[in-house]
Amino acid sequence: MIAEEKFVKLKAILREMGSVIIAYSGGVDSTFLVKAAKDTLGEKALAVIATSPTYPQKEFKEAKDYAREIGIRYVVIETEEIRDPSFSSNTRERCYYCKKRLFSKIKEIAMKEGIQFILDGTNMDDERDFRPGRKASQELNVRSPLLEAGLSKEEIRKLSRDLKLPTWDKPPQACLSSRFPYGEEITEEKLKRIEEGEEFIHSLGFRQVRLRHYGKLARIEVDKEDIQRFFKDSVREKIVDKLLNLGYTYVTLDLEGYCTGSLNK
Q1: pLDDT tens digits for range 161-175
Q2: Taking a C-beta distance cutoff of 8 angstroms, is the pair 130, 264 a contact?
Q3: pTM for this predicted structure
């Protein structure tokens, strides 16, 4: 089945649901889903944008901007998962506790709005990664229509480009808690340090950045094609100075380059 046929299937799934509430992050998948839901269901589609210290403020602002551009109704909630010791202790089940809190809050809104179906942006490719948050989704009966329609990330990007969505080529995103190795406590202070460090590196022209946090050591990942540029025009010195000022003692560059889920190795 080609991407366009899967898109038709997706809209049929949404139409059958009648009314939906969507966990919206502003990423490639959820933006595409929000657009499809708005075009299919109109005012019977509602987006929920979460704000939290684990969520970069730049991403939060972009999600609101995209929602306004698409024209979908949206509400903002604070998830406050950082206050939950089950989350902040950072076990391998961290994402489960985060998603449980998120979808529980969304479920409350859905009940008030009289909306039956809660949706997320899980796609076919996500099934190949370690995602304990999927357990929380299943426990709270969250539907994944992109997955149900058989859409892959590549197909979602293609269809997003056809729809002229600004996210069609947006780099993969993940919450800031994914920068910590399991077992390292997640605190608001550390999250702010990581966010500020990544924003600085982005400001130097790097499109994809991960600042992996290991206590006093920062391990930086950028796209493979950007590794050589890292050492040009005093870029290295600027990044080292910034991260030392943020409180790191050691700064390293991962020569393998950016790799999604690298802390799950």
Answers
A1: 999 999 999 998 889
A2: yes
A3: 0.91
